[in-house]
C-alpha cells in the first residue's frame, strides 16, 4: 500500500481505469431485468445495490470447467458477475456428468467451455462470457489472467496450480483455490488482498506456495479419473469457492480500504484452509468441516518472498519448469522382458491351452474388480498385498500365504499379475520375487503389460474398464 | 522412582484426512497415549510423535506415503489444534495433554 497506484480514497483521479472497477459503476441505475433478477441477493444485509454493481463491474476467470468449475461458474453467473472467462481444453465425456453438472448428455463431445457457457447463458444471459477452449500454459497464462480481477483455480493437477498461483502473485490477483478427490475437499483464499512480490508488511496474505511449499510425490497422487470422486463433495467445494469470490468482489475485500474509517478486519486477515470430509459409512460428524488457521506470507517463499527471482518473462520461457517440479523421480521397477507379456500374447497363450493351472492375480481395488475381470482372475488389491507382504516379512510366515487360500497350494504354477494400467502389477511381481515366491527363478511370475486398459484395447473392446 | 516401570504418557487425539486415514486402518480419529519423553529422555515433540505413529499405529507398509527421510513427506500439512504447525514451531513443538494433531494430505483433483 506504500507505493502509489492512484487508488487512495482521496485521489480518485484514476477512477475510470480498470484498477478500480467499483468507482465508476456505483452511481449507475440498475435496469429492470437486473433489478428483478438480483433483488433477492441485493436485499441481504451487507450486499445492497453497491455490492451488486461491484459484481456487475467485475471480471472473474474460472480455470477448469469440471467438477469444481461447473458449480462455481453457475453461482458466479447467477450472481451477475459482469465478465466471466472460462478456460479448459477438454471435451465433455459421459463419465464427467455425475459431478460436472453444467454439461449435458446431449453435449457429450463438445468442448467443455462451450458446453458450460451454453448452460450459463440459459441461467443468466446478462454477463459477458469469454471461452478459452484450450489449457492454461506458462506461455498463455499471464496474458489471460491479466484481463481479470479475480481468479478461481478449479483445475485438477498440481503443475497448473503452481503456475496459476505464481502468475497471480506477479499480477497481484486474488486467487480462490479449491480441490477435491474421493471423499475430501479443500478450499483456501490466497493472495487477498494482493501485495507486491517481496513485500513483507505484516499481515500480507500467503500465496499457494506459502501454504503448499512442495507438491506431493507423483506416486502418492491420483486423479479423480483414477480414484473417483463423489459429486456432492466436489460440488460443495465449487459452491464454496463461488461464495468466497462473490464476497471478495461485492465487498471489495481485494482492494485497499476505500475509506480511512474502514476497520482493518474488513480485509481477509487470517488465512483459513477449509477442509471437508465426507464419509460414506456414517452420518455427518463433528469433524466433517474444519477451518484451519494458516500462516501468512513466508519470508523465503519462492514466489512471493523477499528474494524471489520469479518473473513473468521467466515463466514464459520455461523457468521454473512446472512439470519437472511436480514430477520428482519415482523408483521405477525395471522387469526383464521374460517377466512381461502383452495382454494379447497372454490371451493367445491361454486360448492355445499353454497355461494350464496358472494363477492370475488382479491387484485392482475391489470396486474396480467388481465391474468385471478376466476369467479365472483372483482379486488381491495392491494395498492389501503390500500389507500381507510386510506381515510375512515381519512375522516370518510362508511366502505362499500372500496368495488367496485356494491358490496357495498350487506348487510352482506360473503366476500372472494384472492391474489397472500396468504399474502396480510390475511392483507386485517384484514384491513376490522378493518374498522368494519365484523359487529362485524356477517359478514364472509375469506382469501383464498395460493392465486391464491394454486388455480392453488388445483383447476385449467390450470390457467395462473404469 | 524408576521410569522404566511406569512410563508417563500424554493423552492426545490424532486425526488423518485427505486419504491419509487409509494408512491408519481407515480410521480418521485415533486416541493416542504418547510417551511423555522419547528414548533419549527429551520431552515428546512432533518429530517424536511422527516416528511413534509410524512404529505403533501405521497399518500400511507404505510408510513413504507418510514420511520421507524420517520427515513428514511433502504434500502433507500438519495442524496443531487446528493451526498450521509453522505457527507453532513445526517438528519441535512440545506436545501438550489433550492436543489435537491433524495430518491432511494436499488435494489436487477437481
Ligand atoms: Zn508465497
TrEMBL record, chain A:
ATP binds at residues 67, 88, 95-99, 112, 156-157. Signal peptide: none annotated. GO terms for biological process: Mo-molybdopterin cofactor biosynthetic process; protein urmylation; tRNA wobble position uridine thiolation. Residues 354-464 form the Rhodanese domain. GO terms for cellular component: cytosol. Gene3D superfamilies: NAD(P)-binding Rossmann-like Domain, Rhodanese-like domain. It is an enzyme of class 2 (transferase). Zn(2+) binds at residues 207, 210, 301, 304. It comes from the Eukaryota. SMART domains: RHOD. In the N-terminal section; belongs to the HesA/MoeB/ThiF family. UBA4 subfamily. HAMAP family: MOCS3_Uba4. This is Adenylyltransferase and sulfurtransferase uba4. It comes from Chaetomidium leptoderma. The lineage of its organism: Eukaryota, Fungi, Dikarya, Ascomycota, Pezizomycotina.
Automatic annotation (TrEMBL), chain B:
The keyword tRNA processing applies. Its main location: cytoplasm. InterPro entries: Beta-grasp_dom_sf, Mopterin_synth/thiamin_S_b, Urm1. One of its GO terms (cellular component) is cytosol. GO terms for biological process: protein urmylation; tRNA thio-modification; tRNA wobble uridine modification. The modification 1-thioglycine is found at residue 110. Pathway: tRNA modification; 5-methoxycarbonylmethyl-2-thiouridine-tRNA biosynthesis. Keywords: Cytoplasm, Isopeptide bond, tRNA processing, Ubl conjugation pathway. Signal peptide: none annotated. Belongs to the URM1 family. Acts as a sulfur carrier required for 2-thiolation of mcm(5)S(2)U at tRNA wobble positions of cytosolic tRNA(Lys), tRNA(Glu) and tRNA(Gln). Serves as sulfur donor in tRNA 2-thiolation reaction by being thiocarboxylated (-COSH) at its C-terminus by the MOCS3 homolog UBA4. The sulfur is then transferred to tRNA to form 2-thiolation of mcm(5)S(2)U. Prior mcm(5) tRNA modification by the elongator complex is required for 2-thiolation. Also acts as a ubiquitin-like protein (UBL) that is covalently conjugated via an isopeptide bond to lysine residues of target proteins such as AHP1. This is Ubiquitin-related modifier 1. It comes from Chaetomidium leptoderma. The gene is URM1.
Amino acid at each position: 500500500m506504500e507505493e502509489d497506484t492512484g487508488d487512495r480514497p482521496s485521489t480518485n483521479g484514476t477512477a475510470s481505469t480498470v484498477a478500480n472497477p467499483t468507482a465508476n459503476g456505483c452511481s449507475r441505475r440498475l435496469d429492470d431485468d437486473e433489478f428483478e433478477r438480483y433483488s433477492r441477493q441485493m436485499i441481504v444485509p451487507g450486499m445492497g445495490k453497491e455490492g451488486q454493481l461491484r459484481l456487475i463491474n467485475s471480471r472473474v476467470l474460472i480455470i477448469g470447467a469440471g467438477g469444481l468449475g461447473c458449480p462455481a461458474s453457475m453461482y458466479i453467473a447467477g450472481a451477475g458477475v459482469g465478465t466471466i472467462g472460462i478456460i479448459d481444453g477438454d471435451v465433455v465425456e459421459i463419465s464427467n456428468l455425475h459431478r460436472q453438472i453444467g454439461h449435458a448428455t446431449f453435449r457429450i463431445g463438445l468442448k467443455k467451455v462451450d458446453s458450460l457457457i451454453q448452460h450459463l447463458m440459459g441461467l443468466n444471459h446478462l454477463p459477458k462470457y469469454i471461452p478459452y477452449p484450450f489449457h492454461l500454459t506458462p506461455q498463455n497464462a499471464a496474458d489471460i489472467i491479466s484481463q481479470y480481477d479475480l481468479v478461481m483455480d478449479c483445475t485438477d493437477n498440481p503443475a497448473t496450480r503452481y503456475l496459476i498461483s505464481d502468475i497471480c502473485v506477479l499480477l497481484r490477483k486474488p486467487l480462490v483455490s479449491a480441490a477435491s478427490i474421493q471423499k475430501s475437499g479443500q478450499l483456501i483464499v490466497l493472495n487477498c488482498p494482493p501485495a507486491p512480490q517481496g513485500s513483507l508488511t505484516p499481515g500480507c496474505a500467503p500465496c499457494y506456495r506459502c501454504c503448499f511449499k512442495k507438491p506431493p510425490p507423483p506416486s502418492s497422487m491420483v486423479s479423480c479419473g483414477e480414484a473417483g470422486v463423489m459429486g456432492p463433495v466436489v460440488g460443495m467445494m465449487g459452491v464454496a469457492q463461488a461464495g468466497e469470490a462473490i464476497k471478495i468482489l461485492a465487498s471489495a475485500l481485494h482492494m485497499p480500504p476505500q475509506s480511512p474509517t474502514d476497520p482493518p478486519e474488513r480485509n481477509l486477515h487470517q488465512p483459513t484452509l477449509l477442509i471437508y470430509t465426507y464419509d460414506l459409512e456414517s452420518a455427518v460428524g463433528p469433524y466433517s468441516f474444519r477451518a484451519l488457521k494458516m500462516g501468512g506470507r513466508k519470508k523465503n517463499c519462492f514466489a512471493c518472498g523477499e528474494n524471489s527471482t520469479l518473473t513473468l518473462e521467466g515463466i514464459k520461457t520455461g523457468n521454473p519448469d512446472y512439470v519437472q517440479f511436480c514430477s520428482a523421480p519415482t523408483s521405477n521397477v525395471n522387469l526383464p522382458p521374460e517377466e512381461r507379456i502383452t495382454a494379447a500374447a497372454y490371451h493367445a497363450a491361454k486360448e492355445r491351452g499353454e497355461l494350464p493351472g496358472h494363477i492370475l492375480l488382479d491387484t485392482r481395488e475391489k470396486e474396480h474388480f467388481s465391474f468385471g475381470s478376466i476369467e479365472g482372475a483372483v482379486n488381491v488389491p495392491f494395498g492389501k498385498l503390500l500389507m500381507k507382504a510386510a506381515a510375512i516379512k515381519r512375522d516370518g510366515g510362508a511366502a505362499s500365504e500372500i496368495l488367496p487360500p485356494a491358490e496357495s497350494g498350487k506348487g510352482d504354477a506360473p503366476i500372472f499379475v494384472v492391474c489397472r494400467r500396468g504399474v502396480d502389477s510390475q511392483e507386485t511381481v517384484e514384491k513376490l520375487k522378493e518374498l522368494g515366491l519365484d523359487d529362485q527363478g524356477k517359478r514364472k511370475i509375469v506382469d501383464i503389460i498395460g493392465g486391464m486398459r491394454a486388455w480392453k484395447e488388445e483383447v476385449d473392446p467390450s470390457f467395462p474398464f473404469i | 522412582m524408576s521410569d522404566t516401570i511406569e512410563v508417563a504418557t500424554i493423552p492426545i487425539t490424532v486425526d488423518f484426512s485427505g486419504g491419509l486415514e487409509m494408512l491408519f486402518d481407515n480410521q480418521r480419529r485415533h486416541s493416542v497415549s504418547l510417551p511423555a519423553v522419547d528414548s533419549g529422555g527429551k520431552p515428546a515433540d512432533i518429530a517424536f510423535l511422527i516416528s511413534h505413529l509410524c512404529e505403533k499405529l501405521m497399518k500400511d507398509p507404505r510408510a513413504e506415503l507418510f514420511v520421507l527421510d524420517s520427515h513428514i513427506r511433502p504434500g502433507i500439512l500438519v495442524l496443531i489444534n487446528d493451526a498450521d504447525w509453522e505457527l507453532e514451531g513445526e517438528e519441535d513443538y512440545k506436545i501438550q495433554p489433550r492436543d489435537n494433531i491433524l495430518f491432511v494430505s494436499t488435494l489436487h483433483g477437481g
